Structures
1.
Amino acid sequence: MKIIMLGAPGAGKGTQAKQISSKYDIPHISTGDIFRANIKNGTELGKKAKGYMDKGALVPDELTCDLVMDRIKQEDCKNGFVLDGFPRTIPQAEALTAALEKIGEKMDFAINVDVPDENIVNRMSGRRACLECGATYHIVSIPPKKEGICDNCGSELVLRDDDKPETVQKRLDVYHEQTQPLIDYYDKQGILKTVDGTVPMEQVFADIVAILQ
Ligand code: AMP
């Protein structure tokens, strides 16, 4: 099963993608996590991506597309994968469609986790991330067992630079301008499904599972 998660930054698509990955035993591919790992390891890609990410802008398509195309060719993706944060622009979506067409495949579902903008800014300011293992928390809805410490690996949790309120509005603007058109794109392909992302996350997950089954 090949799944794309769509939705504004902070809509909860990462949390849902992780659960889908574990229930259906398919890899969770988050371009944001891949970029953050590269930044942490000081790679060339990380150095290039950081400037864009800190501003709330998108990393250019040419840096992003090859990375994802290489990843989905790997052995562990042969039964499917869940893409989180990719595609984010029409050219990225077209590159993905073309790469899959070449091997006679196509995406199965594009799940749009729908949350209005006014909920997003509040959510993001409470978000906390572990830069060590990629786990994410929320100070109210998904608190860690010990405040400020990652349950998985014991590292310190931080408010990501790009989750700071001044950057969130910019990311929302970028989302509406560049990523929202993908909703139409996948609707036309006949694979778009929308779930209400404002209900409790267990319910969001149940709604997604009902679609996938
Ligand atoms: P995320 O963790 O998905 O919210 O991504 C964090 C940041 O990484 C975004 O604000 C972008 O700067 C960058 N990024 C992640 N995925 C993409 C993508 N598909 N295209 C361009 N930039 C991306």
2.
Amino acid sequence: MTDAISTEPQAPRYDFRTQEPLWQKAWNEHACFTVEDVPTDGRPKYYVLEMFPYPSGKIHMGHVRNYTLGDVVARYRRARGFNVLHPMGWDAFGLPAENAARERKSHPATWTWDNIRNMRGELQRMGLSIDWSREFATCQPEYYGKQQELFLRFFETGLVERKESWVNWDPVDGTVLANEQVIDGRGWRSGALIEKKKLSQWFFAITKFAPELLAALDNLDRWPERVRLMQANWIGRSEGARVRFPLTAPKGDIADVEVYTTRPDTLFGMSFLALAPEHPLALAIGAQNAEADAFIAECRRLGTTAAAIETTEKRGFATGLTVRHPFIEGAEIPVWIANFVLMDYGTGAIFGCPAHDQRDWDFATLYGLPIRPVVKPAQGELPEGEAYTGPGTLMNSGFLDGLGVDESKSAAIARLKKMGWGEGETNWRLRDWGVSRQRYWGCPIPVIHCDNCGTVPVPVDQLPVVLPEDVTFDRPGNPLDHHPTWKHVNCPQCNGAAVRETDTFDTFVDSSWYFARFCSPQNASPVSREATDYWMPVDQYIGGIEHAILHLLYARFFTRAMQASGQIGVDEPFAGLFTQGMVTHESYRGADGRWLYPTEVERLADGRSVVTGTDEQVTVGRIEAMSKSKRNTIDPGAIIERYGADTARWFILSDNPPERDMEWTESGVAGAYRFTQRLFRLAESIASLGQVETPAESSPAARKLRRATHRTIAAVTEALESFSFNVAVARLYELAAAMTEAEKDATAAADDKALSAARIEALEMLTRITAPMMPHLAESMNDLLHAGSGLVANDAWPDFDDSLTAAETVTIAVQVMGKLRGTVEFPPGSPAEAVIAAAEAEPNVARLLEGKRIVKKVHVPDRIVNFVIAG
Ligand code: ANZ
Ligand code: ZN
């Protein structure tokens, strides 16, 4: 886009290119941001953490926003006298590294470490106040070995299980796929039709904590309401009943079918019972009936996701079997196998009541099953052509007739219980967390399989189980499995020949406890009790809303699991959570519709946009979240190179409240750049005043500037406390304007010593309260004023003077007989006599009082004067 800084003088006054590295070096040399694992200086602690990055190659604007927000908090808290822990690391395992290795014929480690080196440099050039001595990457054995130890502790505590579960199996690649890797029922890489397959996998027993994970959400009052709601829905507590339906004729040794229902009140409207395709009864039927078997096989190709099941057309198979009804004597209800019933929820079977459940309605309509309404809406009629799911009164329902829905649920459950056909039950949507992945670039699961001893955990003193380096990616499947020697070991128990587990952990495991490791990254055990007692929980966690569910839930589970296994004293990891908005940008397309990078587009004087240096017309598209696919990205590295880190930081903070999306514009960043120059020029002008003795007498101009200064300190403090960083920026622009104004006043009255002192004070304060946002410029300005006086990074946050921030005057209401008749303006705390006299003289009031006898004069300081008159 247009060359925004070409309008600037050739050599800018403030040369960020030399200044920024200088101050970064100074902070580093003074170890400003280094803290101890267990500080003993008695200061309060504050732990600021941004979600650590995946080392994908380069930082993007989302990172810049995320880490700038965190850095403002960290620098502000430090200035307020806290010991601040602000660490950084790398979420370094994962599939992209394996894919890159495959494409480039290199090694995932090489790719990952190259990226880390590059991104570390970029983050350091941003001037973040990070304790780099704590840095680690999750792909280091020093980290993932401790993770293996945690796994063993969880194992001992009963929080790890090995279970069979259904997975998405890619028959061509010979691997399990995550749900996101199944696209339209096919493997994302091979394109093969995906099958459901049962596999033995490792699980973390997150469901054991479901009730606490739900209940504790109420106490997370510094989390966005939206995130708490999403977590609650994901955990999904559901209250209902388990009902057993006896088969009219047993099938082999199966005599009844259990269903889970949240609507036992609708039992009289039941018209079918449906089994999941993997239900044992369905399988038993399939074993004898080729048609049923074919239907089950077809369902299996559907993938395992609830989303896939929800969007697929409902299909069923009538088994010919029937069940009895608990309340309707002699009724025989058909049993179906249906593709919309999930095996891993409730009991894997449902009773269908088409009148009051939309899925059941669709199913019944398709197969001509009866639709019997049993709930009459409180108002209006039953809807036509769809299920009614609202409240109402029961009808056509025997002993439930006339009861409300809630009462009927209890009544139905009580009756089922008395009959021995069922009971009340609570279910949770939350599933145990399957963590086995058939991948190389992850943390090996520390287990050995022995023919004699079964699954044997690797003894702690044999950790870490290190990934072999010599692997190849030329074959589909898991390279750990293909490795000629790695998996062949002796059993730790019987010493016989055994094989290692070749699965690695889901990479979400790596990010579920890194915050605890940051408290003592060198500690011999995974976490140090002393260090986490001091630092945990994280006071302010900052990241994207895309992690609202899984990452946060897993981290909450891990914290509880670490507590249950005796390693940590807290149960919640993040006391405060802030979710930032996206960075957006205009998008551009060339004449042929291809996406263009902003750097390829030139805006002409006549307002038209063309491909730079050509005549090709560019269509300016919507403003959207920056994304590689739309090419509407701006490279932070290039911005910092051209304008400096402070400009990038300032602009990204200025545009909008941080929880909202912000639009990156070239004009915005150029404006921020000009502001850095303007501040520096102001600082030069003030520094040239030299030493000034503050005189006893103030002057109106000095008083005006001092008021602006102190009000800005108050406002910026409040804004930073409440994450209103854009407000802080706006207030600082105002202070700069007041300082420019004062500079003009000073030219008019060169001997106003009070004004000179006020200008110096303004600059001193400005440097300190801008520092969290533009830390380098703040140091440079401070250096102009007080060379060699030490670093702003070590300065305390300034206090403001109350007498200068209070309003200059208050508006006092003047009443006659309690009715508002006028107002007068006075400085707060003015004496009653003066206020009453002015009130009496107020023209409108004076007219009303004329010729009247005043019985009483009421004065409420700074608020009201009321005159009570006779007659
Ligand atoms: C009969 C019924 C009648 C139902 C009615 C609803 C409305 P939540 O709230 O998510 O717990 N269901 C139970 N297990 C299922 C499974 N494995 N796969 C698919 N659906 C299943 O939902 C519980 C309801 O979802 C249950 O209540 C059951 O349908 C269905 F008018 O039972 B209901
Ligand atoms: Zn053994």
3.
Amino acid sequence: MIGIEDYEPYVGAEQIERILQKAKALADCKVVHVNSTYYGGGVAEILDPLSLLMNNVGIDTSWLLIKGEPDFFSVTKKMHNALQGGKINFTEMKTTIYEDSLQKNAIRMNLNDFGRVVIHDPQPLFLINHFKKSCPWIWRCHIDLSSPDQELWDYMAPVVERYDAMIVSSESYKRSVQVPQLIFMPAIDPFSIKNKELSQAEIDERLEHYQIPTDLPLVVQISRFDTWKDPVGVIEAFKKARREVDATLVLLGNIASDDPEGPQIYESLLEQAEDRIILISQDDSALVNALQRSAAVVLQKSIREGFGLTVTEAMWKGTPVIGGNVGGIPLQIQDGYDGFLVSSVDEAAERIVTLLKYANLREQMGRRARENVGKKFLLSRLLEQYIDLLDAFDISFHLRNG
Ligand code: UDP
């Protein structure tokens, strides 16, 4: 099992020592993270290693999931979309489904047994309504809140204000609510199957298994099948780029258990599949790793993106990324230095052509990308931010709540 000491080669002994010292302050505190899915999507991707690492440094940390019927996840996905600027037909039926389901979950979850409760994203947000708060509650929102549907936000804001802190991924996601707001950028686990070093033989084995040809350079996007990730735009950009340079496009996506829209979007893309446009719907972390390592270019052409873990994952592997110039992605890619930011299909196509034509540029950007992730986006940094926050409550919370 990976421990914090394993991060030393990447972040240095000083940071590890500091984290271990700080964690001592929380030795008697039980922490729980709550979200809505065990796999698929960036939140689960972070909570798995983060909760283990917190235990490793001596903080008793649990990870619990809320359960819901398809109706519940259909409503929460609509809320997710509307928080990112989409439309929602906000009916009483929807709020009833949402609130009733969380009430049932609250009855089964003994959240009063913990000393800190961290709630992730909107799905479990209203759980707090069913507890007499005996400790600090934190709402960690991973999505882009810069232009939410106003009616939906007005419904959520009073509940957000019951929390003791709110964490977002970027300054522009802060809202005007009476809650201290902090910025934590997500981070990756360099030791996971998805991110660890792979031998060429391991990479080849995965690509062969899925019959992915390697005779031409690979252009890859790895994302849940979701319109915000703009798979249609990726295919269009690839087709344009192919008029100038030959390559193979691979779109890999998994389906998160809390995202009911995925299968439909995948089906709708299938008619675009051809020899050089390969669509794969699979949950296979080693394949994600192999593709990110063997791609000449990784795309993350999102239209909205709280923070794209896939961007950071590919950059860690020294692969240049072309990302949508939206949400958290400009915080991850320095345009023209360690990747490219794009705002249209044409720009994406142009950048694909440039990167495919110039191997030196790919190599240089890839090296800078890896360096940037090593400095800013490894899980040890996120762990330290959580420890600082969870510890900071001690005095202020008890003063306020008697
Ligand atoms: N992912 C995966 N397989 C896939 C597609 C995505 O394992 O086929 C992972 C991806 O590697 C990343 C996470 O799911 O770790 C997606 O996180 P991101 O922040 O990019 O997007 P989200 O899905 O949270 O919107």
4.
Amino acid sequence: MGDGGMRKRIANILAAPEIGAQLQVGGWVKTRRDASGFSFIEMGDGSCLANIQVIAEQSLVNYDQEIKRLSAGCSVLVTGILQESPAKGQAVELRAMAVQILGWADPEHYPLQKKQHSFEFLRNITHLRPRTNALGAVARVRSRLAYGVHTFFQERGFIQVHTPIITTSDCEGAGEMFQVSASSVRQPGGGNVDFFGRPAGLTVSGQLQAEVYSQALGNVYTFGPIFRAENSNTSRHLAEFWMVEPEMAFCDLAGDMQVAEEMLKYLLRLALTECAEDLSLFDRFIEKGLSARLAQVVEQDFARITYTEAVEQLLCSGQDFIYPVQWGIDLQSEHERYLTETVYQRPLIVTDYPAAIKPFYMRLSDDGRTVAAMDILVPGIGEIIGGSQREERYDVLLARMQQAGIDPEGYGWYLDLRRYGTVPHAGFGLGFERLIQFVTGMANIREVIPFPRTPGFAPC
Ligand code: AMO
């Protein structure tokens, strides 16, 4: 099927146009418009937001039979000469020498017509929605930022650890694990036993296992899929999402916050510089002023307050919140968003939460009632990062586990880390989809993951 050497991606053609060169481009038709003696075919190949315009003249052998039947969604392989475009709207165009139709898309049934479709409609065709401008742009930004996560940590000497997807430890202790050990194995002597010998589930966080490696290798990170069976049908929750979790030995909460802020700014800067074309689409159609907002976040220090100060501010706000505020409550999205959007109007780090509402692994502070925790809240989203300094003292950790009703039996390995050469350490979890929401302005988290899984929804 043509010469791979000659075949080019549209992004590369537009980045360094070679006028007069013979090229081959494979892609999907967006529109076809007929003029006298020739047709304009707009085609995209997903490599960038821009399409390329093909000029197909009626002298082409399949012009009447095929080219004039092309419609949105058809796949074509075009061989042609790149030339400067006389018309406004594009700098170059491809004058076709041959247009090979690889696949038809019946215009009667192809669901992606030229009009703008709602994101709700597109969610029901997750297999076709990446062909739209917006979802294609999201996929490219997501890919670039996933790579950026690795470069950020690798450039700083962090070691990536592949933490398990199947686990017997419920890190967050919130009872949101999907069970996987239902299938049992037959024993040689007859009878069935549970596959892993004890209940196992899909991981809700790679943190505990990342801690293991941080206690041997220093600074590590894990970046993988996370599964939570929370029955929350909100625009910020998924049952399957991706989390970036660094874990740093010889590090306290201050160091943790510093890395988290640096990482977020690094990723936003990367999006601004390397995804500018895609961001311009979001800026025009999803959130006006998006790029300026991101640029501002990169420039400013994040605000920092304690949980106790946050509660005081909420109590004095005069706002009528759905969930009443008092010291000891878990901050709700409405509280988080009020603080970061209305009061501070920039990212906000809230620290020192009540121990009673946070997991057992967070380090108990000297006051005995708060833990060295931090959440980073951003406008439009609320919580994007949750982290803490970990409890490195054996006795305190054991007591916290017992208080939380966790059987220390199953966590002997985790306690061992405190028994043998324990060191202060800290880490955090960045919800990768919430980052993509923040960067693209997408209102619903279901649009920023290729195949969203939510209660009652997992179509393919
Ligand atoms: P936490 O539970 O706060 O922390 O989660 C960390 C971040 O993950 C994102 N997040 C979600 N994103 C989409 N759908 C969900 N259902 C969902 N739940 C959480 C949020 C959140 O800030 N072990 C700790 C992290 C650590 O301390 O290392 C943890 O899991 O952006």
